[in-house]
Amino acid sequence: MDEMSIDFAAPDAVSAPDDVSVPEQLQDLVIDSEDVGGFLHELAVFSASAVSQAVGMDVLCGITLSRRRRTATVAGSTHEARLIDEVQQAYGDGPCLEAMRSRSTQHVPDTSTEERWSEYCSVIAERGHLSALCVPLDLDEGATAALNFFAPQANAYDEATIRNCELYASQAERSLRLAVRIGVKQQHADDLQEAMQTRTVIDLASGIIMGQNRCTQEEAFQILKKASSTRNQKLRDVAETIVKSVANETPVAHFEA
């Protein structure tokens, strides 16, 4: 195959001017996406389109993420792309997982003859994916990811294409790192909001019990905990039942120590 350079022009799914650089296009994906999942899907579509243009055939892209010792396929340019990665996880080994473990690019020129991960490669070869290229991404806090490209022909990737994919991955990982950071902060904010809401409904329920029993707040809270244990319900669920009963002016059980 003749040496070629990858032209990472924005695919149809991403609108960007021709003079916008790849890092800027990737940053736009982060900004325009509603959440991390949306960004990862757009990144997979963007990456698949770029590599497809470079090699002259339809290439699929899956993104595998490993964080806190848990590995999961989080996005794919198509449903099939996700499925290929999920099959690999079912086997527990393969080029994508090895790329993340070793922090090195894994190239499978011909899946129909590959011996390193013979069972997995045989399965995807039967599905028409005859070559694979898996490029690792380094993220924060021990997290790693991989861009996984699957082509319908053997020997789809030459040395120049592989080098360009690795260069692209170094640019993509900055945007993915940013997206993950935003996602973590959003999750922390959601957790905090939920905790505040839980605290509020428990305080309200404790106030109702205090009025019923003419007891202190601590005593009311202990009564609430006892009711939660006796009913085998979450503390918040018991508290919500009490508050809703009062709000709806329906009889509520009298809670006593």
Report on the structure:
- The chain has 257 residues and is an alpha+beta fold.
- It is 56% helix and 13% strand.
- It has eight helices and five strands; from the N terminus they run ααββααβαββααα.
- The protein has helices at 22-32, 36-55, 79-91, 95-102, 118-126, 159-213, 217-231, 235-247, and strands at residues 60-67, 70-76, 106-108, 131-138, 144-151.
- It has a five-stranded antiparallel beta sheet with strand order 2-1-5-4-3, with helices on both faces.
- The longest helix is centred in the C-terminal third of the chain and has 55 residues, at 159-213.
- The protein starts with 21 loop residues before the first helix and ends in a 10-residue tail after the last helix.
Strand fraction equals 5-15%
Q: Strands of the largest sheet, in order across it? A: 2-1-5-4-3
The largest pleated sheet is described as: 5 strands, antiparallel
**What is the succession of H and E elements?**
HHEEHHEHEEHHH
* Rg measurement, Å: 26 Å
Principal-axes geometry comes out as elongated
Number of DSSP helices?
A: 8
Could you estimate the helical fraction of the residues in percent? 55-70%
Detail the poorly predicted runs.
Answer: 1-5, 8-20, 187-191
- Which structural class do you get from the secondary structure elements? alpha+beta
Say how many strands there are. 5
Could you tell me how far the N terminus lies from the C terminus, measured between alpha carbons in angstroms?
Answer: 80 Å
- What's the mean pLDDT score? 77
